[in-house]
Amino acid sequence: MPTTTYIGETDFTQQQGVDQFIEGQGWSSTVPYRGSASQLNGFLAELLLLAGQFGGITALRITPDGPYVNVDVTYAQSPYNPAVNQDPISTVWTLHSSMNEVSALGIGKIQNGFIPILKGVRLKGLNEMKTDELAALKSEIELQAADTTRERFADNTMGAFLLALKLREETAFMVPSYVLKKTETVFVKTQLVASHTNVGKIHNYSDLTSAELSLPAAILVDPIRMSSAEIQGRKINWMKMPPEVDRITGGRYQIIQEYWSFNAFNPYIYDTVSSFNENTYNQVLYDFNK
User: Fold this and answer.
1) Would residue 230 count as lying in a domain?
2) Rounded to two decimals, what is the model's pTM?
3) Do both 20 and 151 map to the same domain?
4) Are residues 190 and 242 in the same domain?
5) How many domains does the chain have?
6) Does residue 84 lie within any of the structural domains?
7) Same domain for 249 and 123?
């Protein structure tokens, strides 16, 4: 418990406390403080900063007494069950869902090829085509879009799909994505700091587990299956977002780190953590709009 005669810049003094045991909750210590009512707000602010060092505050009672005020504070830590000085107090991984807008030409099927439902022949994707094939396909799409009398692409061909997108002016689609979130709860005197290394860079799963050693143990997130999860026929890449630091109750803080999933990205715009390799990162190799 705080043992100084005065707490911070206030005139509050500590009185004799008492320890108690409650079944199912364990030991706690209740400590009374007394000081001027005019300095109560300052005292409470100082108290919250100190409380994290003593397991946090589980209860607080304020009793006015004329120009003075009595404050009874119950700490989670007592001499009978001293708090373990664990840093961080806890690390929790959670997984959330989101939606990302993706360019129509960046969709995995169009980039990588696919087998249409009504036709069992696989269509070649844009990133599998040679430069002259791409140029010819783009030119023909422009000609057919401008001239409704021109002979059309055969049904269930890549040209027919791309022409339909252009005529319907469908330039983007919403696709599902993951938001992976790590929350570390710490006391104010923690040795941990927010990590700014590789913010904004693309991580493959190997990069992610190298940076976040606690992730493989996050059973509920199921990182093993997540490592092979696919969206639109592509394995997931992860972008590290800027960290957040929030203050919570009991003089504690939370360091929050999020990773957002992408199933495709342009390597000329986004940097990768490891050396770029087509076999270890999934990416959009061809931009048909160029």
Assistant:
1) yes
2) 0.63
3) no
4) yes
5) 3
6) no
7) no
- Strands of 66-163 (E only): list them: 68-75, 90-103
Q: What is the pLDDT along the chain (290 residues), one digit of tens a residue?
A: 554 445 556 788 888 888 887 765 667 788 999 999 998 988 888 887 777 667 678 888 999 999 999 999 988 776 665 555 577 888 999 999 998 887 888 777 888 788 877 667 888 888 788 889 889 999 999 999 999 899 999 888 889 989 999 999 988 888 888 999 999 988 777 889 999 999 999 998 889 999 999 999 888 998 878 877 776 667 788 999 999 999 887 667 899 999 998 877 777 788 999 876 655 555 554 555 55
Apex 214 CA angle, 208 and 217, nearest 5 = 105
Strands 57-65 and 18-22: unpaired
Cβ(181)–Cβ(94) below 8 Å: yes
Residue 127 sits in the same domain as residue 156: yes
Same domain as 193, residue 143: no
- DSSP string of 195-244, one letter each residue: --TTTT-EE-HHHHHHH-TTGGG-GGG-HHHHTT-EETTEE-EEEEPPPE
The answer on 252 and 127 residing in a single domain is no
